[in-house]
Amino acid sequence: MTERQLRTWENLQEVTELLRREVGRDLWNDAKLSEAEFTVLAHLSMAAKGTARPSECARAIGWDSSRLAHQLRRLEKRGLVEKAASEAADGRASLIALTDEGRTAYRRALGPHLRSAQKWFADALSDEQVDNLADALETLLRHGSHLAAAPAPTAEPQV
Amino acid sequence: MTERQLRTWENLQEVTELLRREVGRDLWNDAKLSEAEFTVLAHLSMAAKGTARPSECARAIGWDSSRLAHQLRRLEKRGLVEKAASEAADGRASLIALTDEGRTAYRRALGPHLRSAQKWFADALSDEQVDNLADALETLLRHGSHLAAAPAPTAEPQV
DNA sequence: GCAGGATTGCTGACGCGTCAGCTAAAGTCT
DNA sequence: AGACTTTAGCTGACGCGTCAGCAATCCTGC
After folding, report:
1. Which of B14, B159, B59, B41 has the alpha carbon at shortest distance from B110?
2. pLDDT per residue as tens digits for the range B12-62
3. Less packed terminus of chain A by CB within 10 Å, N or C?
């Protein structure tokens, strides 16, 4: 890696840590929700009738099932989400549902959260910078997904 | 926020979460160190004689003192760091020092960690993309630091 | 039918990071 | 000197995220 690449890599970590912390703090101050809670509530709010299967929800927001299960436990403890009876044929499946409280919490959080993202992120960048950033991020995302899908390029049994 | 800004903001979060997870996993697999441990060891390795004051170290790596104290406790438990007697006049100050084990752990981790950053980050981007990304990140960092320094622009007592 | 695997969902352990709050030592002001 | 604030450092509580591992259910091939 060149000096410039290394510096940029370090900057990426520093900036994203800053933004995560500050936007998370705003969200907590504005709506008493963590970023993780907001993410789950957002997905459930999107879904028809505010219900979803855990596995489908986890896939949609890019979490593994364990992470989601822990978050659902905490959300249920807070009363923002509840387990619903699943009428599906699959006996393994469960169904989670937004409570009224969860729905209103999300609605109250959405506006301030977008405003916070604007304040810390969008306000800073010109249109051209956003375009360039979007390009780099898409490239990184493709590259990363590709690497993650084929993690060990050498010395595989290959059957 | 425009649709494009919002999408880019979401992408930024997704990409950085991916990179954090994967590079962290690599570091653990290669050297049995977490990113946080590596950061502290890196700073101490840089310092003359491998010693530093907690407050100075925290400032240098951008952490608050609590976060560093917790990390130092864990590092000490692992035997990578130890408290040293401080000869300073200031009775509040303490002094932390790398152990031999800590020094070798850092040295063994550095190469693989850089290679991991190259693999997940630098390999993906063209020189131009790195330049553009660096520009956006510097802008965001300036903007964020400025906001963080003057958090409430309205309705301050102003003495 | 049933054995072997895959999928779904959950849990406990553990490291991480934030926050509130504490002690002790310096510095400051009168 | 005595009171006030600031600084250095630490801790406990708590939410978060990863990993290893478990139980139940479903699917496949024999």
Report:
1. B41
2. 999 999 999 999 999 999 999 999 999 999 999 999 888 999 999 999 999
3. C
